[in-house]
Structure formats: C-alpha cells, structure tokens
Design a protein that fits this description.
Elements lengths: L2 H10 L12 H4 L2 E7 L2 E6 L12 H11 L5 E5 L12 H10 L1 E2 L29 E5 L7 E6 L5 E5 L3
Bound molecules: zinc ion (ZN).
Pfam families: FeS_assembly_P (PF01883), Zn_ribbon_PaaD (PF23451)
Organism: Parvicella tangerina
Protein name: 1,2-phenylacetyl-CoA epoxidase, subunit D
Length: 163
C-alpha cells in the first residue's frame, strides 16, 4: 500500500461490526485490499456470512465513513472467491469475542478433518471458562451463531460458528 492507500485504510480500519461492536472490519478480515486506480480508490471486500444481513452493512459504513472524511471517489468491489471463512479472524478478534461473552470459533475450516457443525474441540464457556458445555440450538441470536449452555455456571451463551 502506498501512503494514500494507507490513509484510506486507516480511516476505515476501525469500522465496527454492526452486530458485535467490539470487532472491527480488520479483526474480521473483511478488507482484501485498498488500491488507487487512476482517480479512484478501489476497496475490495469479502462479505462474511451471507446469512447474516447485518454483517453486510460494511459496504454502506465504509462509504459513509469515507464521505464524512471528505473522500467520495471510492468504489467498493466485492470478492466472493475465495469465500470468507472464520479462519481469517485474528487471534486478537477471537479474544475480543470471548471477552464480549461470545465463544469464538474453535476450529479451522481449512483443516481437512473439519466437518461443518461437528466441533471436535470443546466449546469453552466465555463466562467461567468451563469445557462442560452443550449445544441448545444450531441457531442463536443470528444464523451465524449457535446457542450453547454451560453445565457449570448454567449460563447460556452464543457460539460464533466456524464456516
Ligand atoms: Zn460457564
């Protein structure tokens, strides 16, 4: 990235996830690149879960944030291949999720032994860190989360599913 592109990146890097405000667009790994193409800036993003409409709000938020900073010569390109995966979430992002009370994705979907919806590792309770948890429902507050309950502290919690 050159200086100009870096400036654009810096303006948008802290845009929060509309649903989980502790996570930024960079934590999630949504921004693929920022590029100056003749007079415009082209920002390439890969949307997260298609089943999570709130997460696709990033595009509007990027345009608005840049406009508020006097930058309107912006194009957003959506890149669907390779598809977004929770593997792109940084470790820092997973820690922030846990602090927020949502159990972060446990597995790498790039692991060839991984089967969607079949977690081999224990989902850890974000409240008391117990491994003694059970899934209540495949779908939590949104389609991208599953609802779990901790057998130790009895608290229900959301688990951010791997995709
Ligand atoms: Zn617990």
């Amino acid at each position: 990235m050159n200086k100009e592109e870096q400036h654009i990146y810096d303006l948008i890097k802290d845009i929060p996830d509309p649903e989980i405000p502790v996570l930024t667009i960079v934590d999630l790994g949504v921004i693929r690149k920022v590029e100056r193409v003749s007079d415009d800036f082209v920002i390439t993003i890969t949307p997260t879960y298609t089943g999570c409409p709130a997460m696709n709000q990033f595009e509007d938020d990027i345009l608005k944030t840049l406009k508020d900073n006097g930058v309107s010569n912006v194009h957003i390109e959506t890149q669907y291949e390779p598809a977004w995966t929770t593997d792109w979430m940084s470790d820092n992002a997973k820690q922030k999720l846990q602090d927020y009370g949502i159990a972060p994705p446990q597995e790498k979907t790039s692991d060839k032994n991984y089967i969607i919806g079949k977690e081999k590792k224990k989902v850890i309770c974000p409240q008391c860190k117990s491994e003694d948890t059970k899934m209540i429902s495949q779908f939590g507050s949104t389609a991208c989360k599953a609802l779990y309950q901790c057998n130790n502290c009895k608290e229900p919690f959301d688990y951010f599913k791997c995709i």
